[in-house]
Amino acid sequence: MKRxxxxxxxxxLLGVSGMAHAQSSVTLYGLVDESIQYxxxxxxxGGSLVQMFGGNLQGNRFGLKGTEDLGGGxxxxxxxxxxxxxxxxxxxQNGAMFGRQAYVGLTGDTWGTFTAGRQYDxxxxxxQPLTGDNYFGSTFATPGDVDNNDNSFRIINSMKxxxxxxxxxxxxxxxxxxxxxxxxxxxxxWSGAATYATGPFSIAAGYLHxxxxxxxxxxxxxxxxxxxxxxxxxxxxxxxxxSAGINSAYAFSKSIGIASAAVQYVTGPWTANLSYxxxxxxxxxxxxxxxxxxxxxxxxxxxxxxxxAALVGIGYAYTHGSGDASATYxxxxxxxxxxxxxxxxxxxxxxxxxxxGQQRDPATGALVSSxxxxxxxxxxxxxxxxxxxxxxxxxxF
Length: 397
Description:
This protein is 9% helix and 49% strand. By secondary structure, it is mainly beta.
């Protein structure tokens, strides 16, 4: 009883303190997304896979974010957010405590926002919201997430500036220090993007450049071969680990450059968008390939709000690789989402993909026949076709 009384008193005192400092706030939030998932051709002999899978529409997370009013329109802000596997309880992003986001900064109504830490790049902030991935998650993502449309990696050691919105126009810039002594440019990342929105129309475009570490030994010491600021936590937190062979042979690239643009139009219950990306993986003497690998990606999405609670959508993604290896991936995705409340919804998503041409095998280095791998899940098909269906529930708090 004493413990209960003390706890009650402590909560009361915290409440009084919160009222006395109303200019400051800290919010605890999170999201849990769970589904049962079917994937065909999921074994070397063509067998099917039925599994529990978390994070279809959005990755599971738990975080804290806060603001403090410093006066004169200036505020201090922070955000700490982890990712976790709902089926095992383990941390994701290779076990990082705050693997999704961790930053602190200042924001002002007239001059914008400056933050520093582990963050998303400007392409993720401004272009991904104008694609089907924003509405139905990874099942609508680019195969292998070769252009990071599904937010497969974050940027560490980064500084980011976000401008205010001027008559619908806004821009972002990011720079991440490589932290390599005597080699300022080694392992650095930089990116910029801009967006313009007026009424039902939105458009965004941007570019990201990520450099790998110059030292072959440093690259080899990481699990993926990538030791730059764009994908420091190997396997789960980089697009190489989730690519299932599509682009994982290019983990030892000297650099990655991604140019991306998207347009969206909303009218009544209809939402339609188109997007394009060009991703280039460039080699050097430490790479396992000699010619720049390019991926041209075109995506289209149409969504229809059947009722205030029900959304349906269809997406198409065309991905063509050329240069080192020539392969083409055609993917069609379907989704339906129904809100049970403001915080809870149920959904179903499905996709079919067909692959053709050749891709480089990351294990042997040889060119092999392309195999399908839907979205950024990493389930490599035993053939050039694959089907995936998921039925799930999502709750936000």
